[in-house]
């Protein structure tokens, strides 16, 4: 009698109504009324995602190549010859318009304009501008969709990166990969829906580190957090069986733990218990699938050569690009790469040359490898950082050396595959490369467009937490239909 009383106490009115709304009858009724408007605010099922996409998706998977530190658009893609002509002259007040600066340059006596020390040319039928730092990327511009008018409010790394990854400058929200995992579910049974790979650039190897909350699940079930694949002998921590335990013993142990957890779930109705059961089962299956995925011994020599010599060096950007292809080949829904080292406040020409060499060949190889395997059509590749760099020099400007500070008002990103227009450039900045003059694209606009390509209406995809309905794009964001093929 005491156990029955305890059970009913745990299932209070709010909990009862919440569980009642998830009954088979409720789901059937929702399906009959509108099969594409399933209730996305309800707690998630451990494996299947919330519902079918709101409409037919163009992309099934995402590879997000995040360039941490803020790559200089003025050295890579946004060609501004006026800066060469006005080199050393002060940034006009009429261009700056009183916009805020970081504490690193706000105290400078002057803001000397500086163009790129590298040569730009136009390539492909699209005639896209690319500097000689990116020769491999230059060869595939007709596969790329450039957005030269990205902008953000955040001016420092932590809030800017958090904003791109979670839709908020404040920590604690789910990352974009977690949202995709939660809403769309898994495409495979043996690997995580959302995986993360990290690499450190040679341009600035001691740049600020990244933190696991960037791929965290926030207030969503822990099942949807990103799983980091590491470059060491244990790609996923704690995946191996403990010493002295074989696979059959582990299977028995998991079965017994599952029984105990199921009893707890029936008593308390906590969905996180089901998530924990699913995580144990996934870890068990990953014991076989992860080593197989990480083993590139079977890759042909010509594929390794495509990605470059570093593709065989675990933990490098090239190796991670090759792994990204192998992961999406196995239907991992969202693969997030982070490449650190783009924060060139000083000695920019030397640092960015090394940094670009890290990523140029491998990025181009990934896109072309996906294409030759028929995967690019429904895999969206996104490349870019958290903001751009200033058109004036941070610190002393010399003939051969300069630095650039953070610049959130305009910067360049590019996408490929997954339903975006190939060989297309969108947006435009002024002749100084300081302000947007045509077709601005905000961070929330990019997120809304990515979700649209995955078949998700960002305005309907919400989750109720602490009395408020949250979404990745907060209360803003517009799909940029001009980017979609």
From TrEMBL:
<dbReference type="InterPro" id="IPR010869">
    <property type="entry name" value="DUF1501"/>
</dbReference>
<dbReference type="InterPro" id="IPR017850">
    <property type="entry name" value="Alkaline_phosphatase_core_sf"/>
</dbReference>
<dbReference type="InterPro" id="IPR006311">
    <property type="entry name" value="TAT_signal"/>
</dbReference>
<dbReference type="Pfam" id="PF07394">
    <property type="entry name" value="DUF1501"/>
</dbReference>
<protein>
    <recommendedName>
        <fullName>Tat (Twin-arginine translocation) pathway signal sequence</fullName>
    </recommendedName>
</protein>
